[in-house]
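Appendix B: complex inputs.
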Amino acid sequence: MMYFDNGATTYPKPQAVINAVMTAMRGYGANPGRSGHRMSLRAAETVYRCRENLARLFAVDNPENVIFTYNCTTALNTVIKGVLKSGDHAVISSLEHNAVVRPLEAMKEQGVTYSVAEVTEGDDEATIRAFRSQFRKNTKLVICTHASNVFGVRLPIERLAALCRLNGILFCLDAAQTAGVVPISLEDSCIDYLCTAGHKGLYGPMGTGVLVMRSDVMPDSLTQGGTGSFSSELRQPELLPDKYESGTPNLPGIAGLNAGVEFVLSRTPERLDAYEMRLGQRLYDRLSGINAVRLYTARPEADTHVPVISFNIGNMDSEQVAAMLDRHQIAVRAGLHCAPLAHQSYGTQEQGTVRAVMSAFNNKKQIDTLANLVNNFVKLNEKKVAIGDSNVLE
Amino acid sequence: MENNLMTFGSMTAVMKARELLRRDGIRAVTIRTPASLRRGSCGYSLRVPQRYERAAELLNQHNISFVGASTVDDR
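Resulting structure:
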């Protein structure tokens, strides 16, 4: 199988990730730091090592500001539901994922409102103006994707975060599609909260996510329970990361994530991005040479995009195209990618798009195979349409 | 009796402190916190048999909260 569904989760994972999960399961699968014995201590050390590596990756001083969640969605929910209260207003971009939109929709019942700022691809000034125009007196939080999970368009997040800081508004970054691929330094930015998945560009197992907290404004915790600390007290501890990490953590997942982050650190996000961008550009160029193929963005470039390529073949249903590719051992994702706002912005809400996302494990040969298959498919389809054969899409 | 034990509120603080001390060449051994000191602790402590004062100074410099204590068992 040639796998291009890396926007959903990366596959394959580095061998070191698989080994780390297996070692944790087989060798020291105890509850981290809870029980006092050596295995428990070793498990706690692995969890801490991962915190340290993530702090290094995102240039954060304190490893305790790195909080483990079960995915990016949980991290985003923690910020959104923990920060916003009745009467508060939030602003999001027009490219947000449902992980942002749905919690905000749910919070309408509690008196929280939100507005959508339109992103203009290739015009950061217009995008920033759009955000600024949505600010109100009661705007408390901006939640913004770093790059669209559908179209790969990057947002000017450093400038947006600075704008928010200037206006006394908290800024939460959804880095699900960029962590591990685009360098992110929290030290040099005004980002208050960073949320990301562990299983995408960080190459960890599914069931891992991260919230990096930089703001002094600590969201309420979504869950309360055992933390292994202050056990005699009935109230949830306020200290980080315990406040947000109730219950048994996902040790095998975190062990794998640690190996994934080490994989990224050893290769550097800059080099990974450069490699994957070359593949993305190759696919874009090949597809743009096929008349029937619709592409929706400008040619991806490192400063403006991440290597996420969305396309369609004429008016064909994107799911049908993905099914055809699947029959030829190519995994892509079609449909709306849980981001209906983004599809509305690009006029693809009915058709959806076929999405191919690169990872470190893709190569030029795979790109050419995908492009050739699309090309052959288009030609075959045109031939069948010409002879009146209604049974297209083989 | 002089302090040779540091207790912490969270396991993450224990790990962070130990790493910091290690980088400064200070030996710190993670142990289960003695029962009499366990209240308000995460259940683990660092035993610092030597250079305790320097260790305390380092942790204070890095804003790592701990409670100092002494234990007779300093093996």
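The interface with chain B takes residues 32-34, 36, 41, 44-45, 48, 51-52, 62-64, 227-233, 237, 239-242 of chain A (CB under 8 Å).
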